[in-house]
Amino acid sequence: MSLFDLKGKTAIITGSSRGIGKAIAEEYAALGANVVISSRKEDACRAVADEINARGGGKALAFPANISAKESLQAMVEATRKAFGRVDILVCNAASNPYYGPLGGISDEQFRKILDNNILSNHWLIQMISPEMIDRKEGSIIIVSSIGGLRGSPVIGAYNISKAADFQLARNYAVEYGQYNVRVNCIAPGLIRTDFARALWENPEAEAAFNRSNPIRRIGDPRDIAGAAVFLAAPASAYVTGQMIVVDGGSTI
After folding, report:
1. What pLDDT is stored for residue 201 in this prediction?
2. Please, what is the Cα angle at 161 between 155 and 35, to 5 degrees?
3. Is residue 140 part of a domain?
4. Residue 202: what pLDDT?
5. CATH number of the structural domain spanning residue 68
6. Is 3 among the domain residues?
7. Over the stretch 101-140, which tens digit does the pLDDT of each residue have?
8. Which is catalytic among the residues 159, 173, 177, 239?
9. How many domains are there within the chain?
10. In the annotation, is 177 catalytic?
């Protein structure tokens, strides 16, 4: 079996109707995995699933779900099992950041939304899918965090706090589930060409300034993150758990 073979596997990828999540789903399907495309908008999910199904390879199921609603996530997990029989890979990619500014100005409601969507929803999904992985003694759980979890920020501090917490969430679950051969890891992207960073990469001067300071001299592409996600889902990473893989073109160094 190839170290990067995903044939016969099933993956749930949240926030997969665009950006990083979509790129991960496309690469998984190309390697033979069945994928569940999920975000809040049904039309967007269906469009991505249709694209993947038209290409061949693994099959795609569209299932809109709100990460802030536990019952919505549970329905997605149940629909996945009904369609494909099992869940082998979970990618917690969806996240939100409703506030930009110093921590001193954030409301309790905004702070709770960030923590609920970026940490608690990941915990819910892990609770939902881990029992079957434990029973089979096989599974890979991946949380898409951020290099923001390694830094302070005057404008996205609460978001960075949530991403730092994701690192520990992965480490703790890795300790608990390692004995069952269920691996839990994080990917920490740097600046990626997604809607989240659109204000920067649509500004030529800002992009040029970033490129001068980045060792690889460019903003990342969602497919750059998909490569790390393939590694962490595949047999190639069978001895990797509780880790945080930084994919940032060298920005943090």
Report:
1. 79
2. 105
3. yes
4. 85
5. 3.40.50.720
6. no
7. 999 999 999 999 999 999 999 999 999 999 999 999 999 9
8. 159
9. 1
10. no
- Asked whether residue 69 is assigned to any structural domain, the reply reads yes
Rounded to whole angstroms, the Cα distance separating 246 from 100 reads: 24
* Residue 169 or residue 194, greater confidence: 169
Does residue 209 form part of some domain? yes
Token look-up 């996205």 returns: 156
Instruction: Give the domain range for residue 199.
Output: 10-247
99: its two tokens = 């506030």
- Beta-carbon contacts of 13 under 8 Å, excluding residues fewer than 6 positions away, are 21, 24, 25, 28, 35, 36, 37, 38, 91, 93
Contact 206, 200 (CB under 8 A): yes
Q: CA-CA-CA-CA torsion for 16, 17, 18, 20, nearest 10 degrees?
A: 10
Q: Do residues 92 and 20 touch, judged by C-beta distance below 8 A?
A: no
182 sits in which H/E element: strand 182-189
Q: Mean pLDDT across the stretch 193-220?
A: 89
Which residue, chain included where needed, has tokens 């997990």? 77
1 confidence band (pLDDT: 50, 70, 90): confident
How do residues 216-239 score in pLDDT, each as one tens digit? 999 999 999 999 999 999 999 999
Encoded tokens for 81? 């099992």
Burial track 17-35 (b if 16+ CB lie within 10 A, e otherwise): bbbbbbbbbbbbbbbbbbb
Residue 109 forms beta bridges with which residues? none
pTM of the model: 0.96
Rounded to the nearest angstrom, the gap between the alpha carbon of residue 82 and the centroid of all alpha carbons in its chain is 23
